[in-house]
Design a protein that fits this description.
The N terminus is likely disordered. Helices cover 40% and strands 19% of the residues. It folds into 2 domains: 225 residues, Malonyl-Coenzyme A Acyl Carrier Protein, domain 2; 62 residues, Malonyl-CoA ACP transacylase, ACP-binding (Alpha-Beta Plaits), CATH 3.30.70. The longest helix has 21 residues. α10 links the parallel β12 and β13. The strands form 3 sheets. The protein has a 6-stranded mixed beta sheet, with helices on both faces. Strands 8-5-7-6-11 form a 5-stranded mixed beta sheet. The protein has a two-stranded antiparallel sheet with strand order 1-2. The chain has 10 helices and 13 strands. By secondary structure, the protein is of the alpha/beta class. GO terms for molecular function: [acyl-carrier-protein] S-malonyltransferase activity. This is ACP S-malonyltransferase. InterPro entries: Ac_transferase_dom_sf (IPR001227), Acyl_transferase_dom (IPR014043), Acyl_Trfase/lysoPLipase (IPR016035), Mal-CoA-ACP_Trans/PKS_FabD (IPR050858), Malonyl_transacylase_ACP-bd (IPR016036). Keywords: Transferase.
Length: 309
C-alpha cells in the first residue's frame, strides 16, 4: 500500500464519514472556464471589498480580468473567489477533511487548513502577486492537448534552442508549457503537425519554471513576515501531492512551487489514497473535470451547488 508523509511521519487514510465530507481542491490561474455566477453574490462582493481595501486598489471579479490585468488583480480576485466559494459550500454543510491546491490554489488551501488566517492568507497572495509582477521572467503559458509526454519531450528536445519548459502535467495528454511569447508561438505549428492542439492560458507570466527564479528570494522574505500556525487539517501540495500539518513546510513549498512544475497525477494518487471525495473549490470546473477522469475520485460538491442569493 502506498505510504505518504504527514509532517514527517507515515499517515493513513482519512475517515470517509458522510457524503458531505471530502478534500477541498482549489485550482489556479490556468482555469480558463470561470464560473461567473458568484460575481454578484453578497459573500463574494464582501470578499472583493476586503481584498480591494488590503491592496489599496479596486480588484475586479475574475470574469472581468483581461490580457492587461496586473498580477495583483488576477491573483487577489481568484483568492477572493476561492474563499467565497469555500464559505458558501461550508454554509451548505460541506466539510473539508484536508485542503489541496494547484498553483495559486495552494494559498487558499493554506487558509482553509488553518496554516494562515484569512487576513494573513490574503497578505501572502498579495506578496506573491507583487513579487511576480516585479521579478517574473518575460513570457506566458500555453496548454498542449492531445500529445503524450514522450512525444512532447521529443518535440521540446528538437526545439532545444527555444526557451520553453513543461510547467504542469494534468494527464497523459494534457500539459502546460511556460516560455517566451515568441517561442511558444513558434512551437504551435509543431504541436499541430504531431496531432495536438494548443490553448492560450491567461496567466500573464511563465509560472512553475526556472524563469520565475528571481521571485523566490522576494517571496521567501515576504512569507517569513507573516503569522503561521500548524494547520488543523492536512495541507496537500499541488507539485507532488506531499501532505503535511507543519506550517514551516507549507511556507517552504508555497515558495518553491513558483519554480517547480505541477503534477496532477501525484495529487490524484494522494487524494485517492486519503479520501475518495473531492470538493471543487473553483474558480472554474477544471478540478471537477480532472477528478471525474481520475479513477477512484468522486466530486461531491462544486460551485454548481451554490444557490442563487
Amino acid at each position: 500500500m502506498q505510504r505518504l508523509l504527514w509532517g514527517g511521519r507515515t499517515m493513513g487514510r482519512l475517515k470517509p464519514v458522510g457524503p458531505r465530507r471530502g478534500i477541498i481542491v482549489f485550482a489556479g490561474q490556468g482555469d480558463t472556464r470561470l464560473d461567473t455566477r458568484l460575481d454578484r453574490h453578497p459573500v463574494f462582493v464582501r470578499a472583493l471589498a476586503d481584498v480591494s481595501e488590503l491592496c489599496g486598489q479596486k480588484i475586479p471579479p475574475p470574469s472581468a480580468l483581461g490580457e492587461n490585468s496586473s498580477q495583483v488583480e488576477r491573483q487577489m480576485a481568484l483568492a477572493a473567489y476561492h474563499m467565497s466559494a469555500f464559505d458558501c459550500l461550508k454554509d451548505l454543510g460541506y466539510e473539508p477533511v484536508a485542503a489541496a491546491g494547484i498553483s495559486l490554489g495552494e494559498f487558499a488551501a493554506a487558509m482553509v487548513s488553518g496554516a494562515l488566517s484569512r487576513v494573513q492568507g490574503y497578505k501572502a497572495v498579495l506578496a506573491r502577486a507583487r513579487c511576480m509582477q516585479e521579478y517574473a521572467g518575460q513570457g506566458t503559458m500555453m496548454a498542449v492537448l492531445g500529445l503524450r509526454m514522450d512525444v512532447l519531450s521529443v518535440l521540446l528536445r528538437d526545439a532545444a534552442w527555444k526557451v520553453i519548459y513543461v510547467s504542469a502535467t494534468y494527464g497523459d495528454r494534457v500539459h502546460l508549457l511556460s516560455g517566451s511569447h515568441d517561442d511558444l508561438g513558434a512551437i504551435r505549428a509543431e504541436v499541430a503537425n504531431r496531432g495536438g492542439r494548443t490553448v492560450p492560458v491567461p496567466s500573464g507570466i511563465p509560472s512553475h519554471c526556472i524563469l520565475m527564479e528571481r521571485v523566490v528570494p522576494c517571496l521567501t522574505s515576504a512569507l517569513q513576515n507573516l503569522l503561521w500556525t500548524n494547520p488543523e487539517i492536512p495541507w496537500i501540495s499541488g507539485i507532488d501531492g506531499f501532505v503535511t500539518r507543519d506550517a514551516a513546510k507549507i511556507q517552504f513549498r508555497l515558495v518553491r512551487q513558483t519554480v517547480e512544475p505541477v503534477s496532477w497525477p501525484h495529487v490524484h494518487n494522494t487524494l485517492s489514497y486519503l479520501h475518495a471525495n473531492v470538493i471543487d473549490g473553483g474558480p472554474g470546473h477544471s478540478v471537477s473535470r480532472m477528478a471525474k477522469s481520475s479513477p477512484g475520485l468522486f466530486v461531491v460538491a462544486s460551485s454548481d451547488d451554490i444557490k442563487p442569493w
